[in-house]
Design goal:
Number of helices: 11
Radius of gyration: 17 Å
Strand order of the largest sheet: 1-2-3-4-5-6-7-8
Order of helices and strands: EHEHEHEHHEHHEHHEHEH
Bound molecules: 2-phosphoglycolic acid
């Protein structure tokens, strides 16, 4: 069955109030102008912009997501944000296990899995990120690393409705470097296979696997037309509404 492509923007730690509202309004306007797009859209601003972006997106078919959450519902966790709080603000998605969180905050697969369980329980959909470093790729271990990250980070009761996987080679993030289409396809196929082992063939067949890492308007078509690539997680290029929308248009959304 056809998987609806997801075009997701990860704004990372970018945007003050005025820029964020402006960007969200431009994305909303562009998506509205597309009429009935074939893709689903998602933007994930920093926590500080969630409420304003939610308002700016009103009336447009663009979902709101956060970039991380805690694994507890509430409690003594200074500086953290719970999945329930995100749900309360109108988020429907949360990105988990991004390589920048794994690197900057020591997030392990087990932590990502616990966060995903909590997010699903709160009614949020998760975009669970995996991906190898350059060293691992050069050692021929890309597939093995991604397989292990899937086994460790994706909860056993995940469904194709509540979970999206994002394959983001760490060395391709923000660098302008992109793996070959063969390499992307090889990892996506391997990921689908391990999802089938873990969650069953039917769930794996329906679950979306996004590609992320230096996606831009000029390479979107090539990457997003691969049979096992079900959308994109876009960092840098999601900060310009024009580019974000052009990626979607070039991907036949
Ligand atoms: P990039 O980031 O598009 O800037 O490479 C992607 C991501 O980290 O999600």
């Amino acid at each position: 069955m056809a998987r609806k492509k997801l075009i997701a923007g990860n704004w990372k730690m970018n945007g003050l109030l005025a820029d964020g509202i402006d960007l969200a309004k431009n994305v909303a306007g562009g998506v509205k102008a597309m009429g009935k797009p074939q893709c689903e859209f998602l933007v994930c601003p920093p926590f500080t912009l969630l409420t304003s972006v939610k308002k700016a997106l009103r009336g447009a078919k663009v979902a709101l997501g956060a970039q991380d959450c805690h694994m507890a519902e509430k409690g003594a966790h200074t500086g953290d944000i719970s999945p329930l709080m995100l749900k309360d603000l109108g988020c429907s998605y949360v990105i988990l296990g991004h390589s920048e969180r794994r690197a900057d905050h020591g997030e392990t697969d087990a932590i990502v899995a616990d966060k995903a369980v909590a997010a699903h329980k709160a009614g949020l959909k998760t975009v669970i990120c995996i991906g190898e470093t350059l060293e691992q790729r050069e050692a021929g271990k890309a597939v093995e690393i991604c397989r292990n990250q899937i086994l460790g980070s994706v909860p056993a009761d995940s469904t194709a409705v509540d979970t999206v996987i994002a394959y983001e080679p760490v060395w391709a993030i923000g660098t302008g470097k992109v793996p070959t289409t063969q390499d992307v396809e090889e990892v996506h196929l391997a990921v689908r296979k391990v999802l089938a082992q873990k969650l069953g063939k039917s769930t794996a067949g329906k679950m979306r696997i996004l590609y992320g890492g230096s996606v831009k308007p000029s390479n979107a078509k090539e990457l997003l037309s691969l049979p096992d690539v079900d959308g994109a997680l876009i960092g840098g290029a999601s900060l310009k509404a024009e580019d974000f929308l052009a990626i979607a248009k070039n991907s036949e959304c």
